[in-house]
Amino acid sequence: MTTEAIMDQNLDLPEDPAIAEAPPQVDNLDALESEAIHIFREVAGEFDRPVILFSGGKDSTVLLHLALKAFRPAPVPFPLLHVDTGHNFEEVLQFRDELVSRHDLRLVVERVQDWIDGGRLSERPDGTRNPLQTQPLLEAIEQNRFDAVFGGGRRDEERARAKERVFSLRDSFGQWDPRRQRPELWNLYNGKHRAGEHMRVFPLSNWTELDVWRYIQREKIELAELYYAHRREVFDRDGMWLTSGPWGGPREDEQVVEKTVRYRTVGDGSCTGAVESEAYTVDDVIAEVAASHLTERGATRADDRMSEAAMEDRKREGYF
Amino acid sequence: MTDETETLTRFAPDSGTEVALPVHTDLLRLATAGSVDDGKSTLVGRLLHDTKSVLADQLEAVHRASADRGLSQPDLSLLVDGLRAEREQGITIDVAYRYFATPKRTFVLADTPGHVQYTRNTVTGASTAQLAVLLVDARKGVLEQTRRHAAVLALLGVPRLVLAVNKIDMVDFDESVHASIAAEFAEHARALGYSDDHVVTVPVSALHGDNVVERSERTPWYTGPSLLEHLETVPVAPDPHDAPFRLPVQYVIRPRTAEHPDYRGYAGQVAAGVVSEGDEVAVLPGGARSRVAKVDTPDGSAPSAAAGRSVTVLLEDDVDIARGDVIVSAASQPRVTDEIEATVCWLAEKPLAPRARVLIKHGARTVQAKVTELSTRFDEQELSGVGSPERLELNEIGKVRFQTSESLPVDEYANSKRTGSFIVLDPSDGSTLAAGLVGVPLAPLAAAAAD
Asked: What are the residue boundaries of the Tr-type G domain, all occurrences included (chain B) (predicted)?
């Protein structure tokens, strides 16, 4: 062996024997993934009728991916629930249905439109249906006797969410009482609840928007296409690029233009805006999110701009 | 997206270099604590703001809300006090979790309230923290609440402390004020068992930013790192991999499909140590023995998996295992007992009385339990014990003996946090009553209990 080869070999040896002996560290995404899987399994072990809230959006797609991993090679032992505002993006609904059939899952859909048609809810003057989801959601939970409902909410999204537990108890009216939250210690989750109460469970609590995107990249998770840059006809309302749809098109004073945009969040079409973007791939999106000066809700959600406590108020009423 | 072959090719821990490193592999979990009005939320807001973790729309909202309140400069505490009641009262009520990153490290921060009635949230934040930042007001120095919080942090095994002497501008950046507070706190920390190099004191002004991110020119006598510099560089102790293997079984995976007719896997998160193919294990509390046939991770089979990883373990023998059982290293097993001596932090309004009937959740098992003895109430100020108290009130810490309806495999909290901890639940309404730690994991309290 030449001297050079020996030196090369030596270079491969770690200098610190302590480092050499340590097993591979669990990295940030692995830690978040393992935590989420632990939460899914805990719910499967402690509850009778869990359900995953699933819209076909980015966070719920990641949630489903984690659920599949948690129980592999067995199927996911829960159905899915979607509260359809009637203002959803057609391509997201299609994507939702594709995923459901690909994984042979059961999907329960509760339609806000049915509630409006039946006179149980009335349309708001501003046309936004996000706040209208709460009653149909609670009704679906009660009718199906779901006792644990998984949501994709993250604490980094919003100030009120930052205060929520992973296991968040709701009373028989679905209400969240931030002053009476149970302390959550170590990774010991308390799933006890009385008849009529249910638990909202947030496996992505500790993820940031960037973590979600890096995980999508790492796991090669397929998303609805409108999360990536595409050409779209949009109009400007309150500084957001809205698209026309069943929720109402542009008003007379609003001019339609074609832009290259993508969506950072996907919710009710009447209040979810697109952002101008050239991010065509997941790598582009990660670069864009990392450099962004706006939060995803701030950039694209009119409903959170209503008041300082908009989210807290909706959550207290039973919203996610 | 569930194609196993695709994910398997990417998972290569033993080949080392093939796996692309993420942006941040280094994560520090920290908690803040301190008395009310010490400026914790302002400090956290300042950290977020000065690390550019606050985005434009969030900052705009704070500016708007501050102006609405007639303030001349933005109140950064509004960034973190997320609840209506908190903003109205100007205090933090509940733990808020914050996420920020610098080029050096990713941080998960549990911002906990200072009000005495919310001390239980400090326990919550501290249960997973690797470091705690304790705040004091430079004008007031070390208070009762400071000593209490430090004791709680020590009890829960938070490895490192930072004392942030806040409002240093209000004492004219006086070195002697800082020095005397630092000395007083150092003595208390030493009594709690902290070595000097695990405790750092930094003079800061959260309001003006001195020594929070940048070192301040107004404290020339201070030669240490800024708070953020310290947080970025302080060594993070990894989960001890040399601890004996523990896996609380959460769920039994049995697909019974044509493809996997006989698969029977025990799913859980490795609580301590490492599990490898071929390891000899015992299943507790029953005591059956077997060998690990296969370790399935979220990314397919692997030769081994370490603490923190969610796995599914398959055994060579057909053993009867259900949720709640614990798979452990056969060579080094925990004690299996229905008599548990433990330290409890009482977190409920309803006091603990001797002979109370409760539920205990340990790992993935919940059992009935009876309080057979309430032997000591600890005084976190004096680090002394009061024998045979009649009850344990909200926020009090005491030594308790439980008798459980089924035997539990427990480790001492001091040796293995995950398998040495449990929560105490109210059987009537399911609420969480207490945090339980097996043994008395804090030396001065153990001494006090023995007296």
From this structure: 25-239
